[in-house]
Amino acid sequence: MTAKNTICLWFDQNAEEAARFYAATFPDSKLIAVHQAPGDYPSGKAGDVITVEFQVMGIPCVGLNGGPTFKHNEAFSFQVSTEDQAETDRLWNAIVDNGGEANVCGWCKDRWGISWQITPRVLIEAFTHPDKAAAKRAFDAMLNMGKIDVAAIEAALRG
User: Fold this and answer.
1) Hey, what's the torsion of the CAs at 31, 108, 87, 152, to 10 degrees?
2) For 106, phi and psi rounded to 5 degrees?
3) Which residues contact 156 (CB under 8 A, 6 or more apart)?
4) What is the predicted pLDDT for the residue at 4?
5) What is d(CA 71, CA 125) in angstroms, rounded to the nearest whole number?
6) CATH class of residue range 1-68
7) What is the per-residue pLDDT for 147?
8) pLDDT score for 2
9) Which of 62, 87, 90, 141 could form a disulfide with 82 if both were Cys (CB 3.0 to 4.6 A apart)?
10) 72-159 is a CATH 3.10.180.10 domain
11) SS3 28
12) Sign of torsion, CA 2 72 149 22?
C-alpha cells in the first residue's frame, strides 16, 4: 500500500474472508493483495495468509491474521453514511444476515466482530437541526431503533 496511514485490523486467521466480504458489500471497496508468511510465526506457519491489503469505501486497510489473542470491540467502528432507506437496508442486512449481530441506534457488528454504524444522512442532519425540539424528537426516536428508520426520523423532525 502506498498510503501513509492505513487502518490495521487484527483477525483470527480470517482476514482474507472478511476483506472479500467488504469488497463485495461496500462501494469503492476492493481486495488489493494477499500476502503469505515467509516463515513460521506464533499463530501460524510459513505459507499461511498473514496479511491482506484491502480498501473499504476508499479507506486503505490491512487485515493481520494475528491469531485469537485480541478481539474487536465497539471502541473502533466504521461509520457509513447512507443516502436513503434502501442503502441503509442493503448494508445493514448484508452485515447482519451474513452472521453478524444487530445492535441499537444504527450499530451492528459483522461476523468477525468489527462494529459498523450504518447512519442515514438524515439522522446526522437531524442532530444539528436548528429547531432544538425537532432535533431532540429525532434523537429520542433513534434511541428506540436498531436499524435506523429514515421515515420515522423524518416524522420525528416534523413533530
Assistant:
1) -170
2) 90, 0
3) 126, 134, 137, 138, 140, 141
4) 87
5) 33
6) alpha beta
7) 98
8) 64
9) 87
10) yes
11) coil
12) positive
Contact 61, 76 (CB under 8 A): no
- Locate the domains of the chain by residue range: 1-68, 72-159
* C-alpha cell of residue 48: 499461511
Question: Would the pLDDT of 41 be above 90?
Answer: no
Question: Per residue in 85-103, pLDDT tens?
Answer: 999 999 999 999 999 999 9
pLDDT for the residue 42: 85
End-to-end CA distance of the chain: 49
Arithmetic mean of pLDDT, 130-135: 97
In this structure, what C-alpha cell is assigned to residue 115? 462494529
* Average pLDDT for 98-120: 98
**CA 106, CA 136: separation in Å to the nearest integer?**
17
